[in-house]
Amino acid sequence: MVRFENVGLRYGMGPEVLKDISFEIEPRSFQFLTGPSGAGKTTLLRLILLALRPTRGLVTVFGQDTSRIEKHELTALRRRMGIVFQDFRLLDHLTTYENVALPLRVQGKEEAAYRGEVVDLLKFVGLGERMHVLPPVLSGGEKQRAAIARALITRPDLLLADEPTGNVDPSLARRLLRLFVELHHFGTAVVIATHDLALMDQIGARRLVLGDRQLHIDD
Amino acid sequence: MTAEPSQAYDATADSQARMRPGRPLVPSATIAGRALVVVIAILTFLAALTASGAQLVANASREWRSSVAREVTIQVRPQPRMDVEGAVSKAAGLARSTKGVESVRVFSKGESERLLEPWLGGGLDLVELPVPRLIVVKLTGEAAASDLGALKDTLRRDVPGASLDDHRLWVERLATMAGGVILVGLVVLGLVIAAAALAIGFATRGALAGAKDIVEVLHFVGADDIFIAREFQSRFLRLGLKGGLIGGGAAAFFLTLAGWLAASLRASPGGNEVEALFGSFEIGWSGYGAIGAVVLLVAAVTALVSRETVRRQLRSMA
């Protein structure tokens, strides 16, 4: 599904921030991406999301070499991914409901076809009473849950989540993790970037550990 | 996704949840919309005035030309030992017998002399002066140039001292002047539209820079460039229509007011001058149609320029 071979990344003429990164994400797999703050977890997720291009090495996403990818193919690939940003990236002028429905709206789907599903998911993540509220009014935890719901609504083949439980209490964190696991059981490959050891200890999943600009895999 | 039983799907709550109609994905606050609406309104006002002004001149010119072209003048110059009255009667008779002539009016000697008063003053004895005699010939719409040419040749041959003036020189001058005014109007209209396009291009680039985070999120959730460009286009189309309607409405109001003022001042000397130049100073339905066309043109240019600007900018983004 995703394959990195000797990937390196540097910004401008600076030193490499990621070096000789090689790994593979299998379909229907579940893994944590971990490492200390500043190790490059978010950067690695952005490489998978094709928001950054590597300065060397080969990145293959859904079987396509990303160095030869066209703009229209990029959109098609991104529609198969869900992303939860560390800083949520909700659109402040849209309600929670509209934010969560956004991935379906941009695909040109009729609202009547997905309204029930969006409401259902919002209730599941505990935002049933907050669906008509604008994001600036939401708490950090509520924003987090809205961002997760937005990433899940299209049932993506690959879910990338950057510190998805960073702003929620342990109880909700467990519930959200259960949601990710459930999604994984439905066939989505999940990558959760986190440095929360307690969260990782809850399930025995594969760990991709970033440190000193390199990656090692803890199966 | 399967909800837990306690949070099962509730159709009542669902029916209350929906997108707010017309809610744009690109917020208006990032577009500096009000300033752009004002700029578009001013440019539309100028363009609409130019277009309707050109239309006014074109209509007036058409009226002048048709009234001038419907009339020709026969001039009979007195010559030594010539029977002037006889020559005038003969020329009038020839004119009457020409196809396409509606009426023939012979200016009497007294009337011809009175025409010279503005230059020579009154009270002069013009008996000794060889004052030319005039015959005004009004034509119907069926008068052909070949008939007038034949009349001209017959007069020259059969009536000594007679000549026909078909005012062709005046008509040509008027046509050239009116054409020039219309051309200038079109150039000004083009320049105003170009200025509007540039202003919209800059505003779109500013809007896109202000909405960079939103565009990035839209890309990540699977929006393609066409979708994003369409969002900007629909937003700018609304701004363009709003500005265009304000500017076009102001131009229509201004011209209606000017027409009303010209009508109310018709009796005064100034009003007479205006009426002589522009007729009744009414732009009519065609003038209002021109204003409407300018409004639609400005709105269309706004939408197209914003769409193309966004698409070009997006091509350079990941």
Helix content of chain B: 55-70%
Treating each run of at least 4 consecutive H or I residues as one helix, how many helices of chain A?
A: 7
Q: What spatial order of strands do you see in the largest sheet of chain A?
A: 6-7-8-3-9-10
Tally of DSSP β-strands of chain A: 10
Q: Give the overall silhouette of chain A.
A: globular
The largest β sheet of chain A comes out as: 6 strands, mixed
Q: Mind describing the biggest β-sheet of chain B?
A: 4 strands, antiparallel
Low-confidence blocks of residues of chain A: none
Chain oligomer state? heterodimer
Biggest chain pair interface: A-B, 47 and 33 residues
**Domains counted in the coordinates of chain B: how many?**
2
**How many DSSP helices of chain B?**
11
Strand adjacency order, main sheet of chain B: 2-3-1-4
Radius of gyration of chain B: 34 Å
Characterization of this structure:
The complex is a heterodimer of chains A (219) and B (318). Chain A has 219 residues and is of the alpha/beta class. Helix content of chain A is 34%, strand content 26%. In chain A, the strands form two sheets. Chain A has a six-stranded mixed beta sheet with strand order 6-7-8-3-9-10, with helices on both faces. A four-stranded antiparallel beta sheet of chain A has the order 2-1-4-5, with helices on one face. In chain A, a hairpin with a 2-residue loop joins strand 9 and strand 10. In chain A, helix 3 packs parallel to helix 5 (140-152). The relative contact order of chain A is 0.20. Chain B is of the alpha+beta class and 318 residues long. Chain B folds into two domains: 26-65 and 178-315, no CATH class; 78-160, no CATH class. In chain B, 67% of the residues lie in helices and 7% in strands. Chain B has helices spanning 11-16, 33-69, 84-96, 109-114, 117-120, 145-158, 168-210, 212-220, 225-264, 269-278, 284-315; strands spanning 71-76, 101-106, 133-139, 162-165. Chain B has a four-stranded antiparallel beta sheet with strand order 2-3-1-4. The two termini of chain B are 31 Å apart. The interface between A and B is large, with 47 and 33 residues.
